[in-house]
Amino acid sequence: MKICIVGQGYIGLPTAALFAKNGCEVLGVDVNEEIVKKLNQGIAHIEEPGISDSIKNAVEEGHYHASSKVEEADTFIITVPTPYLKEDLSCDLTYVISACKSILDVLKKGNIVIIESTIAPMSTDEIIKPIFEKKGFVIGKDLFLAHCPERVLPGQIMEELVNNNRIVGGITEECSRKAADIYRTFVKGEIIETEAKTAELSKCMENTFRDVNIALANELAKIGAEIGVNALDVIEMANKHPRVNIHSPGPGVGGHCLAIDPYFIYAKAPDVAKIIKLARDTNNSMPGFVIENTGKILSNLDKEAKKISVFGVAYKGNTDDARESPAFEIITGLKTAGYEIAIHDPHFDNSEYLDFDEAIKDSSLILILTDHDQFKDLDYDLLCKNMKTKIIFDTKNIIKEVPEDFTLINYGNLYK
Ligand code: SAJ
């Protein structure tokens, strides 16, 4: 079976590697020529456990090759980004539409087309299906179209793609059945067949559930700071209840999913999606909360403070992914407030970021914005020798203890 996967990013590439590993002939298509070149040399361009070896093997064994052009295949899978439009917060289908149009000339009767990109409810029925119908295909009869949202967590993609459950939402039952069979090639989790619109809204709602719960935790952090209660202790206590799971407060919600998908639902039903919008607003307010409190901490503890060391720009720990990261708004805000900012993130190869030693020199405060493992156990001797004042503001609650001469501030003691 030949599978053509359009979009070789965080989802498309690992998916391609798994189909190739399981005996399929895979063509990975990407608009970026540099990426295509690297992939054909067996070099993965994303940081994700297990992906490098998988792609190297797939290329060496001749099961995978990349190209900037599509070719005939049995199944086409679309894994391109879906940003949101800033004007009306709706789902921007530009890349999905162009990917669908790009395969029109090579499509044959009997082909299966699967959209994996996260899309707003009704997109498959109202926007994607007509693209293929215009070309003369009867969906469910001579072309099989389904939405099968990816649901994997960056950092665990290779493992989760195999073991997670999959929702397959077809335009017809036959579309669902055929698309589900494709995933049976390597998926060990349950494969659930449903309608396209149900699959679309389920996927958006999963990330919305998480976003709303994080907003609740962030609101609790603000309440704790306001009324003088340790919010982190509250979370620990409340979560001892068997049916309570308060999430973790942080510097804001980043990534290409949680910070975007809730808007897809909101834009479809703004009059009723009230909690969803409020949660987005609350999470978007967190960079401002961090900026404000960093200023307060420094004006209390180090009136001469000039330099802040920002630890982490990735939106999540142990990755090199900075999409929608709240770190950028915080950095800009602190710069505007007049601070000198030294950025350190060991996962990025960026000439503007500094290594640990450089970043901490004469610093008045270390501001932790990402839960990278490297930040959980800092070299306090080196910090002690190099920092101007020994203050750490840990917005991710990853540092449990510091030496006596350090001041550790987190969302549990902001009120002090
Ligand atoms: N965050 C918090 N507090 C928490 C948990 C997360 O502030 O308690 C923040 C993180 O720091 C990060 C953001 O939320 O900035 C999102 O991180 P994440 O690790 O929760 O999620 P993503 O965006 O990396 O992946 C999500 C996953 N969805 C769910 O867990 C419901 C993943 O399964 C999806 O496949 C992915 O979105 C996607 O592509 O939609």
UniProtKB/TrEMBL annotation:
One example GO MF annotation: NAD binding
Domain UDP-glucose/GDP-mannose dehydrogenase C-terminal: 309-401
Pfam families per UniProt: UDPG_MGDP_dh, UDPG_MGDP_dh_C, UDPG_MGDP_dh_N
Keyword Oxidoreductase attributed: yes
Matching InterPro entries: 6-PGluconate_DH-like_C_sf (IPR008927), NAD(P)-bd_dom_sf (IPR036291), UDP-Glc/GDP-Man (IPR017476), UDP-Glc/GDP-Man_DH_C (IPR014027), UDP-Glc/GDP-Man_DH_C_sf (IPR036220), UDP-Glc/GDP-Man_DH_dimer (IPR014026), UDP-Glc/GDP-Man_DH_N (IPR001732), UDP_ManNAc/GlcNAc_DH (IPR028359)
GO biological process: polysaccharide biosynthetic process
Keywords tagged on the record: NAD, Oxidoreductase
Catalytic activity from the UniProt record: UDP-N-acetyl-alpha-D-mannosamine + 2 NAD(+) + H2O = UDP-N-acetyl-alpha-D-mannosaminouronate + 2 NADH + 3 H(+)
Keyword Oxidoreductase recorded: yes
Superkingdom of origin organism: Archaea
NCBIfam families referenced in this protein's UniProt entry, alphabetically: NDP-sugDHase
Family: Belongs to the UDP-glucose/GDP-mannose dehydrogenase family.
UniProt protein name: UDP-N-acetyl-D-mannosamine dehydrogenase
Source organism (scientific name): Methanobrevibacter olleyae
